[in-house]
Design brief:
The chain has about 425 residues and is α+β, with helices and mostly antiparallel strands. The chain has one domain: Cytochrome P450 (Cytochrome p450), CATH 1.10.630.10. It is built from 16 helices and twelve strands. Strand 10 and strand 11 form a beta hairpin. Helix 10 packs across helix 12 and helix 12 crosses helix 14. The longest helix has about 30 residues.
């Protein structure tokens, strides 16, 4: 029997299955989910989801579900709205756009090559155990400069993030409150994790080099706490966005016949005479871009977004009152047979100019690191394929990811082997 909390158990058990179940081809554009006393609707129609994500924040904005993230990332641009959100976003966007065209490519490829040289010596490795710290090193290098994060800082930050993410996922749509003692222990654990993350951020910030994103953020004249929160957000978002997707990218390099050969040929075509990828040729590297987009279609790092109605309005024939939450699931929309042919398959012949493709969100509150995330995945595909073969040692197909705040990949055991490089001998 349906009641105010009748979908909570299913959501906590397997939100991916719940979203898929409620979004059949016959489903209404808005499907009510019984997740508590406040109304919640799943947006199953892609054009409507696009409209919601691009709505003026005076009518539809971030709401209480997004604000729960403040327990970990505080008052940062992901939890802010209005002029302050736009001010911070503009600085970050400007720096990332400039770096993608000029400075980031050699920094990222250098980190990938060093990681690959170590992995070739290993008998096997778990994909996510490698890609998560690699993604963290990438974002740290772009934020603070190369070498700012020590191995000790890296381990502490990864563990603290894991604790915080588990707590955020567990707190969403909890039916029964914890016992006072259990609640006390969890709050203390979360405070400790946040303190560890903050201490690491402070240390790394002190090592920042000139010309980095942290230097650009100084222009915002933020308080020490707000600066820490903004840096922490960039670390967490950059780490998870690329780290999770990169594990799946390696999986498909190992399991899709012919893909690494195509990528190796593409890497050769855009490499200059000293063996470095030319950033100006990357936008025309169609195969690697398609590989990155297809991975993000199948496994979007953030599998649902939340928006909240701020003014009374009618959407899809329903009259919605302020406080109503709208959930949009890229996982559901990007695997919906109404918008994709053979949606569960990895294919490089797809068109992505569709409202059903939104791994980073859409509109004025989309992830500011869209370009950077695609660049990192593109370079990982090109660099590894140019120098290595990737072998799968675990189950095919792989198990489903674990939904927390992001989609955590399952165990994917791989092996790298060097191969004869395809790159031509260039003449200066």
């Amino acid at each position: 029997m349906k009641h105010l909390f009748s979908d909570v158990s299913a959501f906590r058990r397997d939100p991916l299955a719940l979203f898929e179940e409620r979004s059949s081809p016959e489903a209404a554009p808005l499907v009510q989910l019984n997740l508590g006393p406040s109304p919640v609707y799943l947006v199953t129609d892609a054009p409507l989801a696009k409209t919601v994500l691009r709505a003026d924040e005076a009518t539809i904005d971030k709401g209480r579900l997004v604000h729960k993230l403040r327990t970990v990332i505080g008052t940062s641009s992901i939890t802010l709205s209005g002029a302050e959100h736009q001010r911070r976003r503009a600085i970050i966007h400007q720096h990332l756009a400039r770096g993608i065209m000029n400075d980031f490519v050699p920094q990222i490829t250098g980190l990938i090559r060093r990681q690959a040289s170590l992995l070739i010596c290993e008998r096997s490795f778990d994909a996510h155990e490698v890609t998560a710290p690699l993604a963290l090193r990438m974002i740290v290098a772009l934020l603070f400069g190369h070498g700012a994060l020590t191995e000790c800082d890296e381990s502490a930050l990864m563990e603290a993030v894991h604790v915080a993410e588990e707590e955020m996922a567990d707190s969403l749509f909890r039916i029964l409150p914890r016992t006072p003692w259990r609640s006390f222990l969890k709050r203390r654990e979360l405070r400790r994790s946040r303190a560890i993350m903050g201490a690491v951020v402070d240390r790394v910030r002190g090592r920042a080099k000139s010309g980095t994103l942290v230097q650009a953020l100084q222009a915002l004249d933020l308080s020490p706490d707000d600066m820490r929160d903004e840096i922490l957000l960039l670390l967490l978002a950059g780490h998870h966005t690329t780290g999770n997707a990169a594990a799946w990218l390696l999986y498909y390099l190992a399991t899709e016949p012919g893909v690494t050969e195509r990528l190796a040929a593409e890497a050769e075509a855009i490499t200059d005479y000293v063996g470095e990828i030319d950033p100006l040729r990357l936008p025309k590297a169609e195969t690697s871009l398609r590989v990155a987009r297809e991975v993000l279609r199948l496994y979007p790092p953030f599998y649902w977004f939340s928006r909240e109605i701020r003014t009374p309005q009618e959407i899809a024939g329903l009259k919605l009152k302020p406080g109503t939450s709208l959930i949009i699931s890229p996982w559901q929309l990007q695997r919906d047979a109404r918008y994709w042919c053979d949606p569960a398959a990895f294919r490089l012949d797809r068109a992505y100019n569709t409202p059903a493709f939104m791994p980073f969100g859409l509109g004025p509150r989309a992830c500011v690191g869209i370009g950077l995330g695609l660049l990192e995945l593109q370079l990982l595909a090109l660099e590894l394929s140019a120098s290595c073969s990737v072998e799968i040692l675990s189950n095919v197909p792989a198990d489903k990811p674990t939904p927390q705040i992001t989609l955590l990949p399952p165990h994917i055991e791989l092996r790298l082997r060097p191969r004869v490089p395809m790159r031509r001998q260039h003449v200066a």
